[in-house]
Amino acid sequence: MFFAGLFAMYFTTRAALPELWAEQTAKLNLTFAAINTTVLVLSSVTCQMGVWAAERFQPRRAGSLLQVSRWGMQEWMTLTFLMGAAFIGGQVFEYAELVGHGVALDSDPYGSVFYLATGFHGLHVVGGLIAFLMLLGRSFAARRFGHHEATTAIVVSYYWHFVDVVWIALFGAIYLIR
């Protein structure tokens, strides 16, 4: 519901100020945002690979680090964490670029809506990163990897997939609908 409110705010402001919207969206770097989005979407794939390993009760790899097909939950979830952190780093870079082009939180309604929508999504990604750290810590500390740890991995993945789906919708609304 919260993100539905952000979308409503976004489209209402866009309809009220079409000239401002055209001017400010021209400053967005679609190529960079598409690459950053791809990283986040692919992190859902690695997260699901980690879930499948957890469901097999395989907490860690069963071979060399280079044998990706034998990775366990810890390796997949660590990769997912790194990809999520890279996405956040990309958002920070994009924010710095946009501020340099005069698009700031307090510059105009477009800046306010852009940063509120993407910023709150970013906070949710950070929440997911914290959940991954807790999941990994719990799995390393567990004497025996069982149903409890596997269920935790599944629940964290539900949240992560939700965050990814929300970003796909935000990306479409912000970057593709000009």
What does the model show?
The structure is a single chain. The protein is mainly α and 178 residues long. The protein has six helices and no strands. The chain has one domain: Up-down Bundle (Four Helix Bundle (Hemerythrin (Met), subunit A)), CATH 1.20.120.80. It has helices at 2-16, 18-25, 30-55, 73-100, 109-141, 147-176. Helix 3 packs antiparallel against helix 4 (73-100), helix 3 packs antiparallel against helix 6 (147-176) and helix 4 (73-100) runs antiparallel to helix 5. The longest helix is centred in the last third of the chain and has 33 residues, at 109-141. The radius of gyration is 19 Å and the shape is elongated. One of its GO terms (molecular function) is cytochrome-c oxidase activity. The chain crosses the membrane at residues 32-54, 75-93, 113-137, 158-177.
Task: Give a brief outline of the structure.
It is a multi-pass membrane protein. The chain is about 80% helix and about 0% strand.
